[in-house]
Write a structure and sequence with these properties.
Elements lengths: L12 H5 L5 E3 L8 H4 L5 E5 L3 H5 L2 H6 L5 E5 L7 H13 L4 E4 L2 H15 L8 E2 L2 H12 L3 E4 L28 H10 L5 E2 L1 H11 L5 E4 L5
Parallel strand pairs: 1-2, 2-3, 3-4, 5-7, 6-8
Pfam families: Glyco_transf_29
Membrane topology: Single-pass type II membrane protein
Subcellular location: Golgi apparatus membrane
Length: 220
């Protein structure tokens, strides 16, 4: 389940909660949005940059769905001992909580996969992999069939006339515009950015191989 505003008004909550396994990302809440995004959370994949936002709201992210398994990821330089200690402390406070941290060796495998699929070296192209990349790879490894809700296809933001403006996250109505965010990240060469559109092209190539369906919007 992506964090996309395309999910608002879809009434997909019941269908999403009926899935055998439901994966969410970062600090995307379900409270107040469950009619559209459901409540069930089997896994929550969390970037180092979202860790504090998730752990400071345990009632929403830890207590609400005690069956949730957390997978925290970040470059080894970002996953310092202080962050790991915070994760350990929260786990000690909430015995029901199960958490894993992606190891440096596994992080390199995610980088190698990106280079193998795109021909681009992540570091040389000054980019970070997105939480969506980690989540899709984890889903492919775990699941026989995958239904992705709310992710736009790679060509979406280049359409004419352009798509209507939508907030990047369903839970941040005044947040940045979705396509502005995607295009800025894809084209920027200074600083570190996510190559969202490049990643989506890879996901499109995986659809037939790994039985992936994209809906709201549909990719077909």
């Amino acid at each position: 389940v992506t964090s996309s505003s395309h999910l608002l008004g879809t009434h997909l909550g019941t269908a999403i909660d009926g899935a055998e396994c439901t994966i969410r990302m970062n600090d995307a809440p379900t409270t107040g949005y469950s009619a559209d995004v459901g409540n069930k959370t089997s896994f929550r994949v969390v970037a180092h940059s979202s860790l504090y936002r998730v752990l400071k709201r345990p009632q929403e992210f830890v207590n609400k769905t005690p069956e949730t398994m957390f997978i925290f990821w970040g470059p080894p330089t970002k996953m310092q001992k202080s962050l790991l200690k915070i994760i350990q402390r929260v786990c000690a406070s909430f015995p029901n909580m199960t958490a894993y941290v992606v190891s440096p060796g596994r992080m390199k495998q995610f980088d190698d996969l990106f280079r193998g699929e795109t021909g681009k070296d992540r570091e040389k192209s000054r980019s970070w992999l997105s939480t969506g990349w980690f989540t899709m790879v984890i889903a492919v490894e775990l699941c026989d069939a995958i239904h992705v809700y709310g992710m736009v296809p790679p060509s979406y933001c280049g359409r004419h006339p352009p798509p209507r403006r939508l907030p990047y996250h369903y839970y941040e109505p005044k947040g940045p515009d979705e396509c502005t965010t995607y295009i800025h990240n894809e084209r920027s060469r200074r600083g570190n950015h996510h190559r969202f559109i490049t990643e989506k092209r890879v996901f499109a190539s995986w659809a037939g191989l790994y039985n992936i369906t994209f809906s709201h919007p549909s990719w077909t």
